[in-house]
Amino acid sequence: MDCLFCKISNKEIPSTVVYETDDVIAFNDITPQAPVHIVIIPKHHISSPADITAENCDIAGKMFLAASEIAKKLNLEKGFRIVSNCGEDGGQTVQHLHLHLLAQRSLAWPPG
Ligand code: AMP
Ligand code: ZN
Q: How many whole angstroms from 56 Cα to the centroid of ligand 1?
């Protein structure tokens, strides 16, 4: 499958990996929107949050666990934001489920 994040997960495309388990991998975003901007993905391809089902939803917990563990490792006690863009209106550009973990700057709400 011609999927950028599957290729990053398979190490066919290099990235700066900051966290990895059997199921999840996280790496620095190539176009960071904050001093800390990490992308957290399942290794197994799921296209978007809209494709989470009763059968595959355990991975969502593992992705949030990754975010929590990364936040502890990076001492993000001041806070952080987790975002998952979905579909055209949600601004999703890579069709492989991911969380953005953003930190170390003040983030506006609502995001606009
Ligand atoms: P989204 O727009 O929510 O689908 O997020 C996709 C993210 O992937 C964007 O923030 C991009 O900057 C990031 N991205 C695209 N290509 C790469 C890459 N080769 N390595 C790391 N991050 C990437
Ligand atoms: Zn993929």
A: 23
In a 13 Å sphere around the CA of 95, the CA atoms on its Cβ side amount to: 6
CA-nearest residue for atom 17, ligand 1, is 30
**Is 32 within 8 Å of 45 (Cβ atoms)?**
no
DSSP secondary structure letter of residue 4: H
Helix (H, G, I), strand (E, B) or coil at 61: helix
Note the maximum CA span of the chain.
Answer: 39
Q: Which of the four pLDDT bands, split at 50, 70 and 90, describes residue 112?
A: confident
Residue with tokens 């969380």: 99
What predicted TM-score, i.e. pTM, was given to this entire model?
0.98
